[in-house]
Design brief:
By secondary structure, this protein is α/β, with parallel strands linked by helices. The protein folds into 2 domains: about 35-255, HUPs (Rossmann fold, 3-Layer(aba) Sandwich); about 330-420, Outer Surface Protein A, domain 3 (Alpha-Beta Complex). Helices cover about 45% and strands about 15% of the residues. It has 12 helices and 14 strands. The strands form 4 sheets. It has a 6-stranded mixed β-sheet with strand order 3-2-1-6-7-8, sandwiched between helices. Strands 13-9-14 form a 3-stranded antiparallel β-sheet. The chain has a 3-stranded antiparallel β-sheet with strand order 10-11-12. It is elongated, with a radius of gyration of 27 Å. Mean pLDDT is about 80; it is low at about 1-5 and about 295-300. It binds zinc ion.
């Protein structure tokens, strides 16, 4: 390996100094370090299919009239998370293609295999990305982790990797399609730097500098929507308001950081999404597997009391409803699935979806077994279901009858099933 000579080192350090001096003098003159490219220029936007990057895509088109080349980087294209992200990506790509045909370009997809990722790590909670020694104190409070520390992302080196993929994609566009791109934009928003070290302005500037130095080409610009100096400073709320004004429904964007088909409603990304809608006081159209965890989080004391009271009243009502319903179910009662109810199955999970109410429920093994029996038979009596459950799981007939009735009552109450005498 050839090492740098002292002269070369000296030359490099001089270039850094020159670069910094130039930027610093510009900063002192209150000029922009750089600005967003002129109308009709081309940029690369790193997209995840999430609310931020999907809306930023339209924002760059509408506000700045830029040709946006979205770049999606996946570690496992077969994972539930990737599939959900890609569904979102293609869904909005189709919409933008129709709405903004001049500036829309199809997303480019790259697979990158990480050697390590906290996101795939089973014991993520135990080895939290908030407990690492490299973390710095932060003046902003992170509501999700209830801490004043910045975290690292699930894949801590991803911004470096992404910036070089952005660069490679730009070369591909330049030499194979004769399109000049010097801007690599990350889907980073103003509030991201409150809890993620990768999203700070300094981090992005240093990645920009490292790219320029590595390539000895100072045309490259790497930035996100967290830069006040170029008036490119947006929060989730700004983007949601923009979406509303541009008639874009953000419902089908995918923010969740967990490997589930539907938004989990429990991870930091889901939390930020829920919070943005809550603070804007606009209805959140997203379907979450479990939003309970955050429902009381935002409430002030009196709200908590009201919620507790409501929950108590509702649970008493539910008990009464359950009691009445269970009395309705006889051995010969026929069970049917209501209209507008859909079921779908992944490798391990079985979900039922109530289209009228927007609810989703995950069924356990015996629950999905009962559901499939009802589905296959269209109409089936309670006693038949109970007998099959009894045989399949080898439990007492009393137990299987109790379980069957409990299942039927629960899903009838939730509006999934109906009975016929
Ligand atoms: Zn989530």
């Amino acid at each position: 390996m050839k090492l740098h000579t002292i002269n070369e080192e000296h030359f490099i350090i001089e270039r850094i100094n020159e670069f910094i001096r130039k930027q610093y003098s510009q900063l002192r003159n209150r000029k922009e370090i750089f600005k967003l490219p002129n109308k009709d220029s081309s940029v690369i936007l790193l997209v995840s299919g999430g609310l931020d990057s999907i809306l930023l895509w339209a924002y760059l088109i509408l506000k700045y009239k830029l040709h946006v080349y979205p770049l999606y980087i996946a570690s496992n294209l077969q994972s539930k998370q990737s599939i959900a992200q890609l569904e979102s990506l293609f869904f909005y790509s189709d919409i933008y293609n129709k709405k903004y045909p001049k500036y829309h370009h199809d997303p480019y997809i790259v697979q990158h295999n990480w050697l390590f990722s906290f996101s795939n790590f089973k014991k993520r909670d135990k080895y939290s990305t908030h407990d690492l020694p490299l973390l710095v104190n932060n003046i902003s409070h992170d509501d999700y982790y209830n801490s004043y520390a910045l975290g690292v992302s699930g894949t801590p080196s991803r911004w470096f990797v992404y910036s070089y993929y952005g660069y490679e994609y730009a070369l591909k566009l330049r030499y194979l399609s004769h399109i000049t791109v010097n801007d690599i934009i990350f889907g980073v928003l103003a509030e991201d730097q409150e809890f993620l070290s990768e999203s700070s302005l300094a981090t992005l500037k240093s990645i920009n500098l490292s790219l320029c130095l590595t390539l000895q080409d100072f045309k490259w610009r790497v930035y996100g929507a967290n830069d006040k100096s170029i008036d490119f400073y947006l929060s989730k709320k700004d983007l949601l308001l923009f979406a509303r004004s541009a008639s874009i429904n953000a419902k089908y964007t995918r923010s969740c950081g967990n490997n589930t088909s539907i938004h989990c409603g429990e991870c930091p990304s889901c939390y930020a999404r829920i919070k943005a809608y809550q603070t804007l006081k606009i209805p959140d159209p997203t379907i979450y597997l479990n939003k309970e965890k955050f429902r009381t989080n935002i409430s002030q004391k009196f709200k908590t009391i009201i919620l507790q009271y409501l929950r108590y009243t509702l649970s008493s009502l539910a008990k009464i409803k359950t009691f009445i319903m269970s009395k309705k179910i006889q051995s010969n009662t026929l069970i049917m699935i209501k209209s507008n109810i859909y079921a779908y199955e992944t490798n391990k999970e079985f979900y039922i979806y109530n289209k009228n109410k927007g609810y989703i429920e995950e069924l356990n093994e015996s629950g999905s077994y009962l559901w499939k029996l009802i589905q296959e038979n269209k109409k089936i009596s309670m006693v038949e279901l109970s007998n099959k459950l009894n045989k399949k799981y080898n439990i007492s007939s009393k137990q299987s009858q109790q379980d069957t009735v409990a299942f039927l009552v629960n899903y009838a109450n939730l509006g999934y099933l109906q009975f016929e005498k």
